[in-house]
Design a protein that fits this description.
Length: 252
């Protein structure tokens, strides 16, 4: 668990640094930095997806995962968790007094709404980016099966850089993405011994390719091309595992 614990600590520390040390940068710088990160994320995602050697499986996983995720509505539950965490931290804005002038209250209300959206958006976006890539899967497996934490240490540097900028632009919600990272990567690490016979290099490659496409979708969200509920696509990551694991048992 050392690699995952380091990863989690770096995300929290860098998010706090972004929130309190470099927050307040001019809007024009924040906007262009977010666009630059968005383009970089799209590149990383598409590059990872190109590793797939089963295009039809990739498409099937994305479509099947979208159906499953939409039925469960993972995006809604993750956003609810973000808002719940915001309230528990005492960050939710109090209701405006009834006697308050409507015009005067309109601007603060908009700001509060933006703050809430940023909190949840930061939590959801960062969680997907940090959990969906191949480094999260492969690194967690290496930690569990080989005691090798180098991949997760390298991932920590990347995640820390993203957390720094995300923290400055979207606030403390990004730090809460450390919880899904702990559960996801830690779960893979602890379960790796039990599932080692079912995770072939081919399965890992195809799962990582689907995860990379999800990362590309996050990049498009940052570019404001079209808002995609990327969280509802997460089940697609596991479809290649189920499909490729069952192939040997299918007739013919």
């Amino acid at each position: 668990m050392l690699g995952t614990l380091v990863n989690v600590a770096v995300i929290v520390v860098c998010t706090l640094a972004g929130c309190f040390l470099i927050r307040g940068i001019p809007d024009r710088f924040e906007e262009i930095i977010k666009k630059a990160i968005g383009l970089s994320i799209v590149y990383v995602g598409i590059k990872g997806a190109m590793d797939s050697e089963r295009m039809l499986l990739l498409i099937m996983s994305m479509v099947g995962g979208a159906v499953i995720g939409e039925l469960i509505d993972i995006d809604k539950w993750m956003n609810r968790f973000g808002l719940w965490a915001e309230k528990r931290l005492g960050m939710a804005a109090p209701a405006a007094p009834a006697a308050e002038n409507a015009t005067a209250s309109a601007a603060p209300a908009s700001g509060r709404g933006s703050s809430k959206r940023n909190f949840s958006k930061g939590f959801v976006s960062a969680s997907i980016i940090f959990c969906s890539g191949s480094m999260a899967i492969v690194g967690a497996l290496q930690s569990g099966l080989q005691g090798n934490h180098e991949t997760l240490f390298a991932k920590s540097i990347l995640d820390g850089s993203i957390s720094l900028v995300f923290g400055a632009s979207m606030g403390i919600g990004v730090a809460f993405s450390a919880l899904p990272v702990l559960i996801y990567q830690g779960g893979i690490t602890l379960a790796s011994l039990a599932i080692r016979d079912y995770l072939t290099p081919e399965i890992i490659r195809e799962m990582s390719a689907v995860g990379s496409l999800l990362i590309a979708a996050i990049g498009f969200n940052f570019l404001s091309v079209k808002e995609i509920k990327v969280a509802n696509l997460i089940p697609g990551i596991f479809i290649p595992w189920a499909y490729l694991a069952l192939i040997p048992y299918l007739p013919g």
